[in-house]
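As promised in the previous annual report, we have extended the structural survey to additional targets. Below is the entry for Putative flavoprotein involved in K+ transport.
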Amino acid sequence: MRSGDETMPEAANESVPHHAVVVVGGGQAGLSISYYLKARGLDHVVFEKDVAMGAWSKQRWDNFCLVTPNWQCQLPGHPYEGPEPDGFMKKDEIIAYLDAFKRKVDAPLREGVAVKRVKARAGGGFEVTTSAGTVTADQVVATSGGYHTPIIPRLAERLPASIHQLHSEQYRNAQSLPQGAVLVVGSGQSGAQIAEDLHLAGRTVHLAVGDAPRCARFYRGKDVVTWLAEMGYYDMPVERHPLREGVRDNTNHYVTGRDGGRDIDLRKFATEGMKLYGLLDGLDGTTLTFAPTLKSALAEADRVYNGINAAIDKHIAEKGIAAPPPSVYEPVWEPEADPVALDLAAEGITSIIWCIGFQPDFRWLDAPVFNGAGHPQHYRGVTQVPGVYFLGLPWLHTWGSGRFSGIDRDARYVADRIEELAKGETMPLKAAG
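The corresponding structure token record, generated without further manual editing, is:
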């Protein structure tokens, strides 16, 4: 059989390797489910197209750090045990933490093997075609996350060739960009932090602001994440969230753990020379146009910021907690008008960084488990197709599902369902998320 042959008959073939479980993706989700499969004595293999946890070194800029406190790093059997539980690990520290987890799990890992197709077999189970050949499996877990294809708008094709363009996953540092001003498009966590990184490096920064909300870093004596954890927010399942499954489409709040942690206040950046715009709308020659949304975007981000703090105020009052007095954020800058145009040449812009996210790409999984937008439908990672699971997606179950804080609980739950099916037991699917 040729490597990667997708024409193998579905009938059983003793020459084809078989595993009880195939795990697709060797990031923190893939190694977390491996941890629990090993504990249950379940045969499995983890396929990773690159190197395990490679995204953390290849898709993060040099000054990247966590935006949640280190104490939230709770991978299976591998809690953060460093000297700064309330600090924010930097890129090198995160990689070291993950490398230690990889060694501890010692998963049956096959790096450099890409999964090209998974399809059901007529006799039961699945045929898994990889770049290194074909295997069969009783069950399959997709742990490759939902951030696969970088989003870059088609208008980028019409920009002058002299403009250096890159996606957020390619950005490393200010020194790696050509001399000149930089336009950052998108103000989610990556966009806001990259804009800050460039701003602190002394670069002239233009930022196209989207609809991302923001939150305080510290409030009334504690990190806001600590308050929200005490309030039970991070244990709230998606079905109890006011937005239900719609929360999975939300943009994350922007804040930073840099230099010990602080707010990211775009208004303050504006007072220091950063130039802000609304949503990117079009391109006319060398002039970009923007929707008149800057004022409303800043106001909405501040509304969310103050709303989170007000919820903390209520919690403090109800519990009778001694804490510093409350406060309300007041804007330190207001645009005179919504800017609607930016002449790239006139402003000396030589680089554009696209920070508008990723699209999922599960085309390799041939199973009826997706909605019309191509997103998986599941309940806590369990799909309506027996033996097909997802792990590591944002809000798979709770806020922490795609993060170091919640993957343990999710992996344990999915492993339990895998074991039940392997034993011939069943558990009804409560809902399709």
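The helical segments are 28-39, 55-58, 91-105, 189-200, 224-230, 266-271, 294-319, 407-422. The chain has two domains: 18-148+360-422, 150-354. These points will be discussed at the next consortium meeting with the crystallography subgroup.
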